[in-house]
Design goal:
The protein is of the alpha/beta class and 318 residues long. The protein is built from 8 helices and 9 strands.
């Protein structure tokens, strides 16, 4: 009896409970101190030594296997082709919603990977720097879609990643200020042939329409060797977004230079209502239309619960 393709249940991921994943740490040593861990997490995110030990140490161990295998393959291919080529940095993408903790994950991975023997150079770049300046977004009517795929200078980001993968040195990335909510003129982050580059951003796994003529159309994720998606349910993300907004109201928004300084004097109710409005009209739309659809493209998915703790890990099968 034939079995129809749509009746075959195939899961491209191997799924692990927290306990199962933690056991994969094996004898990987803890190389970060409690003070270092404390400095790595974002203000509204939760991170402790237990989270690093049970989630990020096993992940860093796995990533070293991937990096080593890629380096061996690169050497073998170079020998096969009989060519001398530049070093190819291993690029890791980190994706997920606003307020999900992408920055924390990226910084922890950077810190852990940099301490593996033989101490590789690990750089971190966020795609915020490749947003169009506010002047351009306002002119194009895109300020209310900041963070959506169309709000990024895709050509500049692709050129940056192409230069990185080509081994060019040094390569510069523009710098974004979360205080002024805009690109910082004449400020650059220099990336000089790292062994590993982590690229963090909302839409780094985003694709687009494919051309009917079959010509090559590059996507940001084409340059990734490994990708991580940080996941959480919508209602949890909404709660975290509101909590972060209220925290920023009492901290960063108080700075007169802050783009959001006008929200600093809002009452708790007014600030909550404003945060919910921004979430429902902008961030939730971006999440549903552009971010969540890219989740199954990730190599690894980290699923968080309401307490910011990672509950399950899903690793794509080879």
């Amino acid at each position: 009896m034939d079995v129809r393709a749509d009746q075959i249940l195939y899961d491209p991921y191997r799924r692990f409970s927290r306990a199962q994943w933690a056991a994969l740490r094996d004898d990987t040593p803890m190389t970060l101190t409690p003070k270092e861990v404390e400095r790595l997490h974002s203000m509204h995110d939760r991170l402790d030594m237990k989270e690093v030990e049970e989630i990020y140490l096993p992940l860093s161990r796995l990533l070293t296997f991937y990096v080593s295998a890629a380096q061996r393959l690169f050497v073998s291919e170079r020998q096969f082709l009989g060519i001398e080529d530049r070093k190819m940095p291993y690029i890791i993408g980190v994706a997920g919603s606003v307020a999900v903790g992408k920055s924390t994950t990226a910084r922890v991975l950077q810190a852990l990977l940099a301490r593996w023997s033989p101490r590789p150079r690990v750089d971190l770049v966020t795609t915020d720097g490749f947003l169009f300046p506010n002047e351009v977004l306002e002119r194009e009517g895109l300020m209310q879609k900041k963070g959506f795929p169309e709000s990024y200078d895709r050509s500049a980001l692709l050129s940056f990643l192409s230069d990185i993968k080509s081994g060019r040195r040094p390569v510069r990335a523009p710098v974004y200020s979360h205080l002024t909510y805009d690109i910082m003129p004449n400020h650059w982050q220099e990336v000089d042939r790292p062994d590993i580059l982590i690229v963090e951003g909302l839409n780094v796994l985003q694709t687009g329409p494919l051309p009917s003529d079959g010509k090559a159309v590059p996507f940001v994720s084409d340059f990734f060797d490994f990708s991580v998606y940080i996941d959480a349910e919508e209602d949890i993300l909404r709660e975290w977004y509101v909590e972060r907004f209220l925290t920023l109201r009492d901290t960063a928004f108080l700075d007169p230079r802050s783009y959001f300084n006008r929200y600093a004097k809002l009452s708790d109710k007014e600030a909550t209502d404003k945060a919910l409005s921004l979430w429902n009209t902008i961030n939730l739309v971006n999440l549903q239309e552009n971010i969540v659809p890219t989740r199954p493209r990730a190599t690894l998915i980290l699923k968080k619960g309401s307490d910011h703790v990672i509950e399950t890990v899903s690793l794509r099968r080879l």
